[in-house]
Amino acid sequence: MKAHTIAESLIMPAAKILVRQVIGEEAAAKLDIVPLSNNTVKNRIEEMSVDIADQVIAGVKASKFGFSIQLDESTDVTKCCQLLVHVRFTQDNSVKTELLMSQDLPSTTRGKDIFNVVNDFFRLNDLDWGKLVGCTTDGAPSMLGRKSGFTAHVKAVSPHTTIVHCFIYRFALCAKVLPPNMLSCLQRVIKIVNFVKSSALNTRLFKRLCDDLSSDHTCLLYYTEVRWLSRGNATRRLFELREELLQFCKEKNHDFQTDLESKEYILRLAYLADIFEVLNNFNLWLQGPNRTVTGFISKLGAFVRKLDLWIKNVENNSYEMFKVMDALENKPNDDISKEIVCHLSQLKTELMHYFPDFACCAYSTNPFFVDPADVPVGTGEQEELIDIQADETAKAKHKECCPKNFWLSMVSSYPTLASHAVPQLLIFPSTWECEQGFSAMVTIKSKTRNRLVAPGHDFRCAVSKVIPRIDQLVEKKQLHPSH
User: Fold this and answer.
1) Which of 75, 153, 227, 341 fits a disulfide with 115 by CB distance 3.0 to 4.6 angstroms?
2) How many helices (H) and strands (E) does the chain have?
3) In what order do the strands lie in the sheet with 81-91?
4) CA 71, chain centre distance (Å)
5) How many C-alpha atoms does 319 have within 13 Å on its Cβ side?
6) DSSP code per residue over 403-467
7) H-run or E-run covering 258
8) Cβ neighbours of 376 (radius 10 Å)
9) Is 132:69 a contact under the CB 8 Å cutoff?
10) Helices (H), 287-413
């Protein structure tokens, strides 16, 4: 992800030192004839990128159980719109996740424009829309619009494709719900943080105060709405520095000291620190390279059950599950308890609204605890499910590996079950890979390299896990090309 001039500024000087020490000065001088211009480096990167793309496309075409994609678009530092598409497919009895394409969108970013770009790529590389089992996008209207969104166009050419709205986005929307008093508490947190952080003098004075008091932390953390984890981090840090903040506000004679002296405010702040930490941990669990839709559904079911349990505990005046709030000497009164119950109930309602029942194979995660009567009749699934539940070898295999690898190892023994389970496990639950890619894009196309209009080849070489076939690329080169 470095500038192409790195070959001249770093690689060549290092190579000369190495050759000079091992062979001699005369051999080191011969390195000067090696071409290392920007275009030469660019061409080598492009050749490796094309080779990687060829390997990925070949793997997608050969995938026995089809493939799924996730895509997202974002604007880079030069206001150019970049579209990323990642693909998940099966290869060599394993599941692969790779970058399928990255391309800039020169004009509008409507659903039709995005579909045309992807469709042209599919047609150019002979990819079959009929083998697409899942398509995951963010919640933008251009993606999820029912009439003219990208997914509407996908449904027109591939009706059986499962459309998924990114689970991370949906969960972040669920986590926004707050009762009025809790929301007011959070807004005061933001104002307190801004009061200290927005002034360079206040920041230095508060840091000096924390150093004098030997505090664990010396600064507060900003809250940013688009950064979903910042609410939990900001509230937790402010709670831990509440004593230092109280003294600081007294010295400044600011009315924030009224909040920090209020027992009810501190209790609400402690609860927010606890519940936001839970939500942050769940959000972090969603982020990862090997997540599946079925795994999330199981995790979500467990989280909803925890919410039901916490509601009952709060109604019984038991707060041990909220460690920060339970550690306080003052316990919540009836009003705060009702607010907590209200928030937990609203959170559960939002989860049920944003995550309705998702149709998936009952046995895709664990076939050994599924009643054969619950699966379709006449497809052969019931009979194979009974056979696999009596197979001790399959039970041992299931304990050793993840569901995706388990079903790929069962293809020859239980083809009907595997043909239903594997495509379900290929579907992306989120656009996490695309978000990771945009982070790498920021490094590649920075303010100092803003003339790099379409850094597709650099980007593919940077993020792809496929190794370019250097030996084959070298064989195609001539040692002394004619002029």
Assistant:
1) 153
2) 24, 5
3) 94-105, 81-91, 67-75, 132-137, 162-165
4) 12
5) 25
6) HHHHHHHTTTT-HHHHHHHHHHHHS-SS-HHHHHHHHHHHHHS-GGGTT-S--HHHHHHHH--SP
7) helix 256-261
8) 9
9) yes
10) 293-315, 323-326, 334-354, 381-389, 392-400, 403-409
Question: Is pLDDT above 60 for 483?
Answer: no
User: What would the two tokens of residue 336 be?
Assistant: 């705060």
Answer whether 430's CB lies under 8 Å from 168's CB.
Answer: yes
Sequence-distant (≥ 6) Cβ neighbours of residue 476 within 8 angstroms: none
Q: Note the pLDDT of residue 105.
A: 86
**447 has pLDDT over 80:** no
* Structure letter (DSSP) for residue 402: -
What's the pLDDT band for 234 if we cut at 50, 70, 90? very high
Q: Which two tokens mark 469?
A: 């076939």
**pLDDT tens-digit readout, 96-152:** 999 999 988 888 888 899 999 999 999 999 999 999 999 999 888 888 888 888 999
Burial of 264 (0-12, 13-18, 19+ CB in 10 A): middle
**Closest to 354 (Cα-Cα) out of 226, 165, 137:** 165
What is the full DSSP assignment across 79-125? S-EEEEEEEEEEETTEEEEEEEEEEEE-S---HHHHHHHHHHHHHHT
What's the whole-number mean pLDDT along residues 250-256? Answer: 88
Q: Which of 1, 116, 85, 96 is nearest to 55 (CA)?
A: 96
Please name which of 123, 124, 110, 121 lies closest in space to residue 153, comparing C-alpha atoms. Answer: 110
Whole-prediction pTM value? 0.87
**pLDDT, tens digit, 9 for 90 and up, residues 269-294:** 999 999 999 999 999 998 888 889 98
Would you state the structure tokens that stand for residue 280, as one six-digit string? 């942050």
Q: Tell me how far apart the alpha carbons of residues 367 and 201 are, in angstroms, rounded to a whole number.
A: 62
Residues 6+ apart with CB under 8 A from 19: 27, 28, 31
Residue 169 tokens read as 């986005």
Q: What's the whole-number mean pLDDT along residues 43-58?
A: 92
> What's residue 143's pLDDT?
86
Q: What tokens does 437 get?
A: 């890619």
Q: What is the pLDDT of residue 359?
A: 64
Q: What is the dihedral of CA 356, 361, 367, 370, to 10 degrees?
A: 60
Mean of the per-residue pLDDT values of the chain: 89
Q: State what percent of residues in the chain have pLDDT above 90.
A: 51
347 neighbors 314 (Cβ within 8 angstroms): no
Q: Give the H/E segment covering residue 165.
A: strand 162-165
